[in-house]
């Protein structure tokens, strides 16, 4: 049974939209341009859904449409889609130009941020002239290098590896979301995410 707890995390709301409208909101890979005015359709369709509010939906929709993979999908020849994935007409050139400008600006900001965070090389000092014999230097003990943070290497799960109450990670968008398996029905795996949302996925979407 799905939890009726209200969703507040934007990632959890996006995961809910991926599950509820899979032909409109694409969790992985290339997306599809959305119908103009889709927010109103979305608000009406989920008007009786206690999990999300209009404000939360607006924030989640803004994050989805400002992502690089969405902006890249706004291109010549692409068709807008409604909540059911049905075509709603081709894109206008001004919308394509606007999306490409936003993408370029976002990528340039990310590049500048990475450059600002990169360590600056130390300035080289000119070697000093030695006029007197140098005393032999005493060797200082070498400090061990700090241990690097552990890197999580996820492993693609096999259906035979999965059991009820097992903690797993579900591939939703760019970042895996943690949860617990609540039921296994043939190839359908029911997972309750830590956010409280329960989703149904296949084994190929689960990481261990």
UniProtKB/TrEMBL annotation:
Domain ProQ/FinO span(s) in chain numbering: 5-119
Gene3D superfamilies, per the entry: ProQ/FinO domain
First-listed, main subcellular location of the protein, grouped into a coarse class: cytoplasm
Claim: Chaperone is one of the keywords in the record: yes
Superkingdom field: Bacteria
Pfam families per the UniProt record, alphabetical: ProQ (PF04352), ProQ_C (PF17516)
Cell compartments where the protein resides: Cytoplasm
This protein's UniProt keywords: Chaperone, Cytoplasm, RNA-binding
Chain spans, region Disordered: 105-146
Family annotation (SMART domains): ProQ (SM00945)
PANTHER family registered for this protein in UniProt: RNA CHAPERONE PROQ
Family named by the database record: Belongs to the ProQ family.
Role, per record: RNA chaperone with significant RNA binding, RNA strand exchange and RNA duplexing activities.
Name assigned to this protein: RNA chaperone ProQ
């Amino acid at each position: 049974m799905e939890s009726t707890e209200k969703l507040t995390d934007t990632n959890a709301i996006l995961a809910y939209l991926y599950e509820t409208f899979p032909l409109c909101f694409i969790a992985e890979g290339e997306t599809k341009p959305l119908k103009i005015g889709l927010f109103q359709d979305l608000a009406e369709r989920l008007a009786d859904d206690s999990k999300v509010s209009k404000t939360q939906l607006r924030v989640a929709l803004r994050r989805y449409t400002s992502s690089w993979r969405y902006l890249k999908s706004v291109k010549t020849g692409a068709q807008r889609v409604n909540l059911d994935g049905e075509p709603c007409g081709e894109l206008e050139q001004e919308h394509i130009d606007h999306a490409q400008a936003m993408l370029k600006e976002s990528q340039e900001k990310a590049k500048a941020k990475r450059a600002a965070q990169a360590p600056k090389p130390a300035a080289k000092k000119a070697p000093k002239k030695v006029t007197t014999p140098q005393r032999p230097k005493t060797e200082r003990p070498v400090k061990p290098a700090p241990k690097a943070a552990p890197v999580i290497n996820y492993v693609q799960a096999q259906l035979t590896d999965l059991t009820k109450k097992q903690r797993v990670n579900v591939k939703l968008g760019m970042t895996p979301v943690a949860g617990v398996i609540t039921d296994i029905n043939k190839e359908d795996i029911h997972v309750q995410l830590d956010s409280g949302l329960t989703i149904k996925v296949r084994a190929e979407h689960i990481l261990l």
